[in-house]
Amino acid sequence: MIEAFRWLIWREMTLALRRKAEVLTTMLFFVIVVSLFPLGIGPEIDTLREIAPGVLWVAALLASMLSLNRLFADDYIDGTLEQLIISSQPLALMVFGKILAHWFLTGLPLVLISPVLGMQLGMDVDSIIILMLTLLVGTPVLSLIGAVGAGLTLGVRGGGVLLSLLILPLYIPVLIFGSGAVESAQAGLGVEGHFSLLGAFFIGSLVLAPLGAAAALRISLD
Amino acid sequence: MIFFTKAFWLQVSSPKAFYPFAGKVIPFFMITALVLTVVGLYYGFVLAPPDYQQGDSYRIMFIHVPAAWMSMWIYIVMCVFAIIGMVWRTRLSDMMAGALAPTGAMFTFLALWTGALWGKPTWGTYWVWDARLTSELILLFLYFGFIALRAAIDDPQRAARASALLACVGVINVPIIYFSVKWWNTLHQGASVGLTQKATMADSMLTAMMVMAFAFWAYTFAVAFMRVRNEILEKEKNSAWVSETLTKTVEGKNEST
Amino acid sequence: MNLPEFLDMGHYAPYVWGSYGVVASFMLVEVILLMTKRRSLVKSIARLARLNRESKV
Q: Which of the 8 DSSP states describes residue A87?
């Protein structure tokens, strides 16, 4: 079982690294969307600093969501997904492996590039650190919840937009506490409450989402 | 009462048996809804006095609150039917879940609409980002997602099961979303000025609301049953029992006229 | 309360009747849509049955 898990991760990374462009697009989208806001709202650094937590989190949300289509689509087309389902390995574990690799390639880059964007929007160092931490805990949750949606909409007409409609309402609590933590940090207040909840979302989705996604895949492929 | 026997429900759970049963029951629900509405509105407009602070505008409450209740209850009942359909593989349960969704979405929209029209005279603005209205808006998106997913999948079995899973995921999230938004709202105090209104509820007001809630429930059953009957007709249009039932009805009508 | 006062709803008439009006309309439209759909389904099934009978003869 561990062997299969490790093999899966290795496979995901190898395939992804062969198509580096796809991996980079998520990060680029994040950067571009964040850059749009000063252009749309004006370069007043105080205004930007004020909206920064929300803007950065919403952009991360959207970037995360856009990348979800890639999670199962390729394996669905070439039949690998069916093999995974039929195999004797627990599907939830295999799905978790895919999600983990997916997050590594699409979520983690967002965390890593966020300081640059934070500085662009005039945030101070302490807030940027909190921002990175919230994204570090939050983006996996986005990948996990998103996987359930991706599983449900496999091969469906208008899949991408439909996926957004399904997933975005479920992202809202993560958004609220993620950007809330950063705002709190900017105001010099405590962030423990926010992080406890983000942590709770993390653990909850870690346990439940792979099961839900596995069930979704079974529904979509039977 | 025959409705409390398991045998009755087992018998009625096939589309073929449900169709005539529903047909007989729908008028009963509709009339109940109308009667309850008249009673409820009588309590609300004739017996209940004007509010100390809000004058007569508060009377919107008699449809706003029941609509909001319905939006949440229907979602839960929808989930229950979806789960029954998934676990016991009963097509009728799937159909009921699908039939409830549009009505649930409608009540959610109506809750938002009446809430906005109540908010304007009360708080001076049509929309406030308070916990309840915002959560209600998100609930509307959840309904749309459910309906959209169902519509987008061609295979009816896959559509039913996928939307059932989505509904379950949603139902777990609704309390989380509500709590999150409530917390977020208390933090941004600026938006919540004047929201804590102490509803000094006279008995007549409470009665009006409860009666209207029951009226809406009767209406929902009637409409959901109508929708299920339509879906049964559509799915089974080629089967013999459908054409037999319909010709019998037509002949019956012709004989009586 | 007499009728003009009742309709005025303490100057809140547009809000109160706007709410009740929309709610009533939506519910009415929902029922009408369902009845229309049923009628068209019944018609198409009758047509289908007739075609089947004719083709068998």
A: S
Domain with A186, as residue range(s), is: 2-221
Chains touching B by CB (3 or more pairs below 8 Å): A, C
- Structural domains of chain A, count: 1
State the complex-level ipTM.
0.87
Q: Are A137 and A200 in contact (CB under 8 A)?
A: no
Alpha helices per DSSP H over chain B: 6-12, 15-42, 61-88, 91-123, 131-152, 156-187, 203-235, 240-256
Q: At what angle do helices A45-67 and A20-41 cross, to 10 degrees?
A: 150
**CB contacts, 8 Å: A220 with chain B:** 158, 162
> pLDDT tens digits for chain A (222 residues)?
788 888 888 888 888 777 777 778 889 999 999 999 999 888 888 889 999 999 999 999 999 998 998 888 888 888 888 888 888 888 898 899 999 989 988 999 999 999 999 999 999 999 999 999 999 999 999 999 999 999 999 988 877 889 999 999 999 999 999 999 999 999 888 888 899 999 999 999 999 999 999 999 999 987
Distance from CA of C15 to the nearest CA of B (A): 5
C32–chain B Cβ distance below 8 A for any pair: no
Q: Does A168 touch chain B (CB under 8 A)?
A: yes
Domain range annotation of chain B? 25-49+56-188+203-229
Q: Model pTM greater than 0.90?
A: no
Domain residue ranges of chain C, discontinuous segments joined by +: 3-56
Q: How near does any CA of chain C get to the CA of B243, in Å?
A: 7
Q: For B113, which residue in chain C has the nearest alpha carbon?
A: C19
- Count the neighbouring beta carbons within 10 Å of the beta carbon of residue B13: 15
